[in-house]
Amino acid sequence: MENISLNQTGDMEGMLLCFPHLQGSCPRTLRLAVIRVIMYAFMLTTTLMTVCGNLLVIISISHFKQLHSPTNFIILSLALVDCSLGCLVMPFSMIRSVDGCWYLGKHFCKVHSSLDMMLCSTSIMHLCLVSVDRYWAICQPLQYRTKVTTVRVTVYIVIIWLISFVFSFGIVLTDLNSMGLEMLTNPCIGSCILICNKEWGIIASLVTFFIPGIIMICLYVKIFHVARKHARVMNERLATVTCNELKNQTTEQRERKAAKTLALVVIVFIICWMPFFVTIVVDPFLNFLTPADIFDALMWFAYCNSVCNPVIYAFFYPNFRKAFKILIY
Questions:
Q1: Any idea what the CATH number is for the domain that residue 96 is in?
Q2: Phi-psi region for residue 242, left (φ > 0), alpha (ψ -120 to 50) or beta?
Q3: How far apart are CA 291 and CA 210, in angstroms?
Q4: Which end of the chain is more exposed for a tag (fewer CB within 10 A), N or C?
């Protein structure tokens, strides 16, 4: 974004301002009309796909009893997170990204930034919980039904939501993330940026992305190692299996397929969010040189993750695919 020098009298002649009637207003981002249309079309499409796709997941799991399982209840909560992102965060981010202005006031800016951080951290904690669930299902199958119950999963989900809420709102509302950066966080009227100092850029990224991501990767490496071992054993016993053993092997195959699908969900999440979090960590050490448009582009690329999850379920889960077809048609 081009930097514009303003004199003390607030002479803004020839400029478009976020709030023309207020002295000290931020300048609006000047874009060609065709660029604005393309940006609005892309962001609105992404938002609608996020809301509609995750609503399908929520309705499917809630309505069809064959989808009621501890794993799917975690997916239900994850879909609720993504749907909330599409309803409560992305529409306001869309206007800010296109116009370069925040029209809803300083207080709602803090709420919006807190929700954005909260829903992001809640997503990855849900994916971490899914990884633990798959680990128990594949690596400890005999103990899975006793250790992973609907009640326990519900308790874990509630804890995740509470931790994410306290962590995100606590950081943003107390301005811990921007201590020492007051001149950057309040440059003009109509600005709403979530900016982190060096300490909290590292802490927030470690807590909400890098540490859970490493845990998930380690769990899935263990899962696939065990799955390959089980596959070799199954191939050796294939000629002598009984009906009951065949049924158990079919269940194990289904569990492994579910683990592979959910691993894909994790991989897509990491691809989508990694550039954003790397920027959050690195940018304070570069004196915040990342252009606003680049930061917005990385943020929307991360938002696209919320579109991908329902698509993955539709392509790789037969039960979800059938449920989607029934609901749509």
A1: 1.20.1070.10
A2: beta
A3: 24
A4: C
